[in-house]
Amino acid sequence: MSVLELARAEIRAMQPYSSARMEAGGGKIMLNANESAWAPPGDHGLGCNRYPDPQPQALLEALASLYGVRSSQVLVGRGSDEAIDLLVRAFCRAGEDAIAIQPPTFGMYAVCARIQNAAVVEVPLSPSFTLDVDALLAALTPAVKLVFVCTPNNPTGQLVAHDDVVRLAQALAGRALLVVDEAYNEFSDAISVAGLIDRHDNLAVLRTLSKAWALAGVRIGSLLANEEVIGLLRRIMPPYPLPLPCVDLALQALSEPGQAKAREHIQVVRQQRQRMAAALAALPGVRQVLPSHANFLAVRFDDAAAVYQRLLSAGIVVRDVRRYAQLGDALRITIGTPEENDGVLTALQDVFA
């Protein structure tokens, strides 16, 4: 059975939009897209008066090399959020199909499902925030077409074991597409599951340049999957998702010097994460610092609301995650520069003094 049989039949059958850039055919005088013939001020040779390549080959090849897959297995879009939305729209019929998630986890999975009027099956993580594979599989119904797994998980920071991903992919074959979100993988020692894509056609992996690669404002994320899934999503993707300046910045970040700088910063984050976890755990108003493999720490406080307000009054903004399941006393603190982290500790010491 092809994994595409899980997708909506009307999406598989539709005639995709053919953009002017896709039909350009390598001409030298471009008069087919109603563009301006003049570059705008400050263009610096990018050619922003022309529509961009929908999937720039140089970027696809750079990302494929980075993630250890073929360029034909990469779809690039506006952050991994766009890939989540495309997956839900391609695989879930409104009012009939569903996704499965394990709260507390990244909120956009459920948001995209509800926009599509797809149901959301929730299978909570254990009290220690680990994934219970047996409970997840037992909760799935035939309506579930997508199973989202986040590792390291946001907002808790825990990993899902590689063997658990393999077990899920095998159990879901012919039933659902397993989508593993590895947005924070670079901050962990975990091996990416992207290497399993050729063995499991129902496995897809989300990656992003927003975190470790310092390009949150550029909005470039990737979906890694088998060629059939990539081709299906390109059918429903807007024709020009990637602005030329964003592609240019991404290619600079993925160059050899750019990768060296990113890895330098990743190492600082990992060192600071360890330091901050120990320092926060020693504070009197802290109940627990959850173990994290990401670039943040989820911290339980005796009075999280008061701590949040006191930090805010000191000009420090952290994430209030008290609305998330099992995290009613927690704040999520991103690991910043050593100086920013010092500021957090100083502010908290003042709070608890």
TrEMBL record:
Species the sequence originates in: Dyella halodurans
PROSITE patterns: AA_TRANSFER_CLASS_2
Domain of life: Bacteria
One of the Pfam families matching this protein, by short name: Aminotran_1_2
Aminotransferase class I/classII large domain residues: 47-348
Metabolic or biological pathway, per its Swiss-Prot or TrEMBL entry: Amino-acid biosynthesis; L-histidine biosynthesis; L-histidine from 5-phospho-alpha-D-ribose 1-diphosphate: step 7/9
Lineage, broadest ranks: Bacteria, Pseudomonadati, Pseudomonadota, Gammaproteobacteria, Lysobacterales
PANTHER family (UniProt xref): HISTIDINOL-PHOSPHATE AMINOTRANSFERASE, HISTIDINOL-PHOSPHATE AMINOTRANSFERASE-RELATED
Top EC class of this enzyme: transferase
Required cofactor names: pyridoxal 5'-phosphate
Catalytic activity: L-histidinol phosphate + 2-oxoglutarate = 3-(imidazol-4-yl)-2-oxopropyl phosphate + L-glutamate
Annotated keywords: Amino-acid biosynthesis, Aminotransferase, Histidine biosynthesis, Pyridoxal phosphate, Transferase
Entry-linked Gene3D superfamilies: Aspartate Aminotransferase, domain 1 (3.90.1150.10), Type I PLP-dependent aspartate aminotransferase-like (Major domain) (3.40.640.10)
Modified residues (N6-(pyridoxal phosphate)lysine): K211
HAMAP family cross-referenced by the UniProt entry: HisC_aminotrans_2
Protein name: Histidinol-phosphate aminotransferase
EC number: 2.6.1.9
Family: Belongs to the class-II pyridoxal-phosphate-dependent aminotransferase family. Histidinol-phosphate aminotransferase subfamily.
